[in-house]
């Protein structure tokens, strides 16, 4: 009973009052339940459904999805810019602002929008299953999508502030480039050959992103930066795991020599 009361205390007492009533944020059940259903669908029900079926093409859906991702991630960056995130480029530590002023509120709503986008991102795995691209439903892919949504949910609920918004802006910028590449590569044989050389650069860009975000998270440990350290603990741990997983993917995909067929 004490554990339940402790969980209830931290869930309801330490929330940001500006986000506590937003859809999907209040409930402690909806997002975890969605992720559980997601795993069951992409690992069990989906492959079972597709077992005796031909893979779906979904080319049109994928192209529209990529265009959506490019524009929504660019929009999130624009919202953060307009909210003053980069108004002081030499300032690394932003102290929390829990006010209801226009700019802090805009950042709060942008956090919530980002959480919704990360929820929509789960559809990407479903398309892999429907196209029978089971090799793409890897541990890296699942870990990245699950933890990204959980962190977006947690940060929207507890820490929707400038210091935590910077990683979000960087990640959205990477996604603009990434989904632009995916859009053009979806045209198959009509795709310019130069995109083949760009593909490994996307993974390198993601790894460089993790490195800089780890450095940025360390700002919270500066004596002059009087902020809650827990977001940085969580960010650094997750970024380190992602760095290892993406590095292994890069090595296996682009550095390991291909075995010649006999």
Element layout with pairings:
Elements: H1 2-13, H2 30-50, H3 59-82, H4 102-120, H5 123-130, H6 139-158, H7 162-185, H8 194-217, H9 230-255
Explain what you see.
- The chain is mostly helical.
- It is 68% helix and 0% strand.
- The chain has nine helices and no strands.
- It is globular.
- It starts with a helix and ends in a 7-residue tail after the last helix.
- The mean pLDDT is 87.
Number of strands: 0
Amount of helix = 55-70%
Q: Taking Cα atoms only, what radius of gyration do you get, to the nearest Å?
A: 20 Å
Q: Sheet with the most strands?
A: none
* Beta-strand percent range: under 5%
Structural class: mainly alpha
Q: Label the overall shape.
A: globular
Output mean pLDDT: 87
What's the tally of helices?
Answer: 9
Output the helix-strand order. HHHHHHHHH
Low-pLDDT parts are none
Distance from N terminus to C terminus (CA atoms, Å) equals 64 Å
Features:
single chain; 262 residues; mainly alpha
Quick overview:
The protein is mostly helical and 262 residues long. It has helices at residues 2-13, 30-50, 59-82, 102-120, 123-130, 139-158, 162-185, 194-217, 230-255. It is 68% helix and 0% strand.
